[in-house]
Amino acid sequence: MLRTITFQGQSVYELSNGRSTALIAPQAGARLLNWKVDGQAVIHWPETADWSKPAHVRGGNPILFPFIARHMVNGEIGWWLDAVGTKRELPMHGFARNAVFGVVPMSDPNTLRMRIIPTPQTQAWYPFEFVFDVVYRLGEAELEVRLEASNNGVDPMPYYMGHHFYFAVPHDARERWEVNIPCGQWGNQDFTNGSIIERSAASAVTPLSDPKLSDRFHLGLKSKEISLLEQGTGKGVVFALEAGGNVPWFDVTTWTQDASSDFYCVEPWTGLPNAIHNGKGLRYLSPGSKESAVCVLKAMGY
Fold this sequence. Notes:
The protein contains 2 helices and 28 strands. By secondary structure, the chain is mainly β. It starts with a strand and ends with a strand. 41% of the residues are buried.
């Protein structure tokens, strides 16, 4: 069921289906705020969020488009070079997470579709005739998320998109929680020049208590299923990657802010930071074409 409610003084949409509820704010970057199963938080959202700067709130699921994370020119973050060499400014993680999305009517009461199209500001940053949709479909213990990019212009459109899920994990319980991400390589970004440093992955399973897990790229994914689970209880989330759509997930990134943060992020991405320059996951969408990337989050043990 879909309805509007007031949450933290804001008008937001609530999806509910059996045991599951999710709150979403189209006006704040199509942001999933929280997801609860039987009243327990799967997705973290702070009780005292600063709604004057929603893109900076550590919680929910910020949507990353048209680029992900840090892009840079000559070491200066927030800039990129277009096909003819013009240097253009673009916010880190793109502009979608700050955008006001419109709601597209749907007949399915368990689905919320949201959309942005170009504005004069986005044209200055990113001169393409895009349509970008974020679609959430809520099941009784699962959440499907679809990202759709369309090119209505006449030039090939460079892009790479992704998620920034903040999962509710108490900081003092991290030693009991593990990610299982079978992959071939681990990577990190060199913040001085934007390049990606890769090395062979040592294992698929890593405890969240390992400080080296934060800001790690998991590349060469070997499974369409990954997980974030608490050992002993089985509580957590199993991701079904490649759950539809026609764009593969290039990477899964893991990150948290610090040792006292009561969240851990597991983030499927279709490309790596600075892909506009290093090419790792960079896609060019042909004029008149549409592409989508889909993942399904399955709540376990709640």
